[in-house]
Recover the amino acids of this structure.
């Protein structure tokens, strides 16, 4: 019996090896090759001594070491705080009986759909002091002295990023928590364990892989975000690797920029390694094929205080920035009330006296065209990246012993985060811009956007899939193997339904990032393939702030709608398949 | 002018050679490369361009949309495909496309002259074309390395509401004194090329900076250890005086220009942004005549891409954007005929409401000299933050 089982399992695992090789091949093509291109551009005469400049020159201190320290500070701060806040909100929404938790759940997903600069602007509009000049923030104009440390630098940069990325951790952890079997919690309570003990000893470990994924995502985003440190850090010369990297590329020192991003990848690999080691060798399977109905915990007298804390959090991070962003599109003068209000930037016809005759965005056919292109791109990339991420994560959970393959897949699925989008875009033009054998050049086509988008979004899809898959017990699949179910059938009938929450959540994250992303596509977009994010950027760089913000708001509405739709979908799936 | 005649044939020689060596498609593009563009009459150029029927341009300004309209009105048979993209992105994109052999633009309208010289011209990504028609109206520095149709600026600006009697600063070195501590705003030169060019020019003009120092303080300048020249010493002192670095020009404009400020800062920004004063509620004004100079004046340049699919239409578009013989430069120059932008053609009269280039006293940058010095300046600035 035992040998029959192992034999059957061995047979079942054979296709997995082929799948592993396939996933690896795709990742090599999409991620490793561009990375190799980056490394090559930093070596030899082309590199122009960039490595020495960055690591061992009089500039190293300001070019690398201090920005590195700042980046790690911001990255770790963002990762840890986001995970704590995300986990707290996920617990409130999924497992507690706190009033209003449904609304809190919806609002918790919004900050990620907003552009990080909108949240940074909201911060500025409250905390800005007179360091830069111009119009002061709310507090300063009320006569409250605001110290630089609250207005500029590490504190506002980190807190703004947390306000943006806790929603990432929330989505990942909430999906995992929803899968924690109610029976496990009930059993624990029967043993007389206190609620706190159940939470700490059972629920927390069960969501550990999700929390880790959430941390890794928020960490990487915190390290790679450019807009926020540029806006809130620069005035006090708080530089991060991303502002340095952007500066190097902008001022023509591309090789140095590439060196900085390669170093970022190395640092990320170290963080990834430490993270996986922390959870290595432990099983987090909580979906066992038995009853998995989630169960709410009663919080007694804490209901209202908890509700108040959670509500304040989402109010400050989702509602306030949304209002600031929306209001700014109605202001006749950029960020000033003294010019009066107008609908011009939405529906106005061309008026030479305003914004050099650029008409309202809803009247602009290229905006509508870009809207279609953006949604199509988001959907295509979400589908592609989710499939790749899911297959990669599947291979990883089912082949834990193939350390080299697993390590390579993990790393390649994570690093795209840390390669600056502009460099990634340039690498893709180099790779797919010329015809390869029978395949025509992809440059200027929708396809190259999709391919690059998938490569850049794999981290989201992979981390979320991995978090969900880690919860599915291997027993279920093994049982299915015994019934003779094929690998594909097991995937579709068992793995997918059980992980659908996490996978759909991941797909939405991919969709949202793709709809907003600028740096990756800015080089790849041609007039034939307009996208909303590129139009925002163009308007913003021309100083047409209201137009830029109006399009940003459209992007945010698309993202939020997608998130809400996905929640409904997840809700339906959840009750239909696992109860 | 002599310079142009030297470089063009050289490039014409080099291009088919490299194509022949690196790809087998050399033969296909050979006929285009053989054309002696300078020898064509205007009508012949139009005829070739109309046969191509389309031209694609990458430009660093949204004003290219107006050019698209006016060019298509002038040459109804030719479709303009205009892409507005920042100079940095434009340069990266052109270089990547060139490497991949899939050039999509025919013309580049670009401002980062020193980077263009080092990254695009050095690698033959862009080729110069000076329309014979306008060559005599252009000073030599506006025909090489690429032809320039106007000059833009990064100069010291102040708030004229707070300072109705004129600029509060007469000498750049005042900015290093306690009165201006924390009150000078500029985009971090290590983040943006045009501001790096400003600092580079100060280093290149170190003698003038040293003289201005002596003018102001009455003693000759003494350089700190490790500081090479008076221009860099200015950067050291300015940074030490708590200069505020920000991430983009609009932030500088709003910081300096916003009305209703009791004690507004001064800052380095584009003179032409003054055109948005009434639109945005600013009171930006240029500190013209500051000693030794309020800042830099630099060219907006036009070049043909090496692999241009529409080489004739590309040249016709450049010809068009150089303006006509009227005092304002006509339709091809209309979007750039604004105060704070300076036409390069000596027969076009500068817009009336702006101070003249002479009154402004800005330094005209030399792209090649800048290109040579600028990375050393960038490196130096990195060490003093």
């Amino acid at each position: 019996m035992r040998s029959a089982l192992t034999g059957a399992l061995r047979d079942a695992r054979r296709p997995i090896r082929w799948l592993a090789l396939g996933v690896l091949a795709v990742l090599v093509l999409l991620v490793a090759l561009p990375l190799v291109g980056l490394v090559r551009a930093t070596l030899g005469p082309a590199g122009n001594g960039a490595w020495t400049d960055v690591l061992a020159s009089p500039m190293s201190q300001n070019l690398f070491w201090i920005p590195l320290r700042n980046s790690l500070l911001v990255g770790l701060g963002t990762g840890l705080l986001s995970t704590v806040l995300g986990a707290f909100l996920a617990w409130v929404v999924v497992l507690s009986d706190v009033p209003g938790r449904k609304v809190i759940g919806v609002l918790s997903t919004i900050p990620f759909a907003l552009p990080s600069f909108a949240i940074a602007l909201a911060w500025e509009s409250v905390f800005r002091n007179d360091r830069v000049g111009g119009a002061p923030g709310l507090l300063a104009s009320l006569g409250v002295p605001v110290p630089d440390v609250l207005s500029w630098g590490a504190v506002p940069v980190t807190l703004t990023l947390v306000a943006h990325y806790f929603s990432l951790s929330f989505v990942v952890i909430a999906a995992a928590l929803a899968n924690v079997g109610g029976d496990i919690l009930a059993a624990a309570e029967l043993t007389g364990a206190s609620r706190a003990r159940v939470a700490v000893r059972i629920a927390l470990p069960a969501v550990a892989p999700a929390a880790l994924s959430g941390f890794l995502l928020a960490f990487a985003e915190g390290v790679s975000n450019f807009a926020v440190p540029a806006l809130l850090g620069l005035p006090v010369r708080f530089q991060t690797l991303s502002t340095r990297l952007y500066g190097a590329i902008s001022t023509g020192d591309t090789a140095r920029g590439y060196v900085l991003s390669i170093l970022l990848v190395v640092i990320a690999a170290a963080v990834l390694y430490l993270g996986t080691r922390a959870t290595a060798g432990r099983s987090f399977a909580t979906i066992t094929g038995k009853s998995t109905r989630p169960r709410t915990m009663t919080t007694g007298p804490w209901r209202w205080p908890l509700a108040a804390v959670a509500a304040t959090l989402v109010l400050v991070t989702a509602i306030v920035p949304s209002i600031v962003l929306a209001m700014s599109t109605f202001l006749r003068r950029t960020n000033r009330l003294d010019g009066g209000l107008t609908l011009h930037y939405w529906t106005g016809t061309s008026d030479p006296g305003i914004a050099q005759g650029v008409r309202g965005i809803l009247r602009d056919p290229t905006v509508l065209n870009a809207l279609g292109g953006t949604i199509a791109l988001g959907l295509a990339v979400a589908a592609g990246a989710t499939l790749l991420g899911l297959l990669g994560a599947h291979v990883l959970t089912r082949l834990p012993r193939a350390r080299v393959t697993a390590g390579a897949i993990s790393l390649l699925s994570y690093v795209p985060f840390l390669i600056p989008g502009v460099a990634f875009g340039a690498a893709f033009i180099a790779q797919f811009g010329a015809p390869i054998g029978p395949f025509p050049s992809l440059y200027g086509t929708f396809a190259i956007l999709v391919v690059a988008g998938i490569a850049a979004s794999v981290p989201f899809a992979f981390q979320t899939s991995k978090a969900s898959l880690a919860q599915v017990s291997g027993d279920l699949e093994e049982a299915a193997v015994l019934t003779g179910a094929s690998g594909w059938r097991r995937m579709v009938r068992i793995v997918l339904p059980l992980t659908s929450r996490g996978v759909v959540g991941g797909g939405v994250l991919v969709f949202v990032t793709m709809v907003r992303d600028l740096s990756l596509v800015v080089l790849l977009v041609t007039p034939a393939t307009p996208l909303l994010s590129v139009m925002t950027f163009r308007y913003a760089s021309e100083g047409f702030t209201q137009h830029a913000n109006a399009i940003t708001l459209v992007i945010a509405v698309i993202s939020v709608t997608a998130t809400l739709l996905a929640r409904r979908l997840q809700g339906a799936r959840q009750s239909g398949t696992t109860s | 002018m002599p310079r142009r005649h030297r470089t063009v044939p050289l490039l014409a020689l080099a291009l088919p050679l490299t194509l022949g060596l690196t790809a087998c498609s050399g033969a296909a593009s050979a006929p285009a490369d053989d054309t002696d563009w300078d020898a064509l009459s205007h009508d012949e150029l139009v005829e070739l361009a109309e046969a191509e029927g389309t031209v694609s341009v990458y430009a660093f300004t949204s004003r290219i949309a107006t050019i698209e309209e006016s060019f298509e009105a002038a040459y109804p048979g030719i479709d303009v495909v205009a892409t507005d993209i920042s100079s940095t992105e434009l340069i990266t994109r052109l270089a990547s496309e060139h490497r991949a052999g899939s050039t999509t633009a025919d013309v580049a309208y670009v401002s980062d002259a020193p980077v263009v010289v080092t990254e695009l011209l050095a690698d033959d990504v862009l080729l110069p074309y000076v329309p014979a028609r306008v060559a005599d109206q252009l000073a030599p520095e506006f025909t090489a390395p690429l032809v320039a149709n106007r000059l833009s600026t990064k100069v010291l600006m102040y708030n004229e509401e707070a300072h109705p009697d004129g600029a509060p600063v007469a000498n750049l070195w005042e900015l290093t004194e306690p009165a201006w501590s924390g009150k000078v705003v500029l985009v971090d030169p290590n983040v943006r090329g045009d501001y790096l060019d400003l600092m580079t020019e100060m280093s290149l003009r170190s003698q003038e900076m040293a003289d201005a120092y002596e003018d102001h303080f009455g003693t000759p300048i003494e350089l700190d250890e490790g500081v090479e020249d008076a221009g860099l010493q200015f950067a050291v002192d300015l940074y030490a005086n708590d200069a505020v670095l920000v991430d983009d020009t609009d932030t500088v404009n709003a910081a300096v220009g916003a009305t209703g400020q009791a004690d507004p800062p001064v800052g380095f920004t584009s003179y032409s942004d003054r055109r948005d004063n009434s639109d945005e509620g600013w009171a930006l004004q240029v500190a013209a005549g500051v000693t030794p100079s309020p800042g830099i004046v630099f060219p907006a340049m036009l070049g043909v891409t090496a692999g241009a699919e529409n080489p004739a239409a590309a040249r016709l578009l450049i010809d068009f954007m150089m303006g006509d013989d009227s005092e304002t430069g006509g339709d091809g120059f209309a979007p750039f005929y604004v105060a704070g932008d300076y036409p390069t053609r000596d027969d076009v009269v500068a817009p009336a409401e702006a101070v003249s280039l002479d009154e402004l006293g800005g330094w005209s940058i030399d792209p090649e000299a800048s290109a040579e010095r600028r990375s050393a300046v960038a490196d130096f600035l990195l060490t003093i933050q």
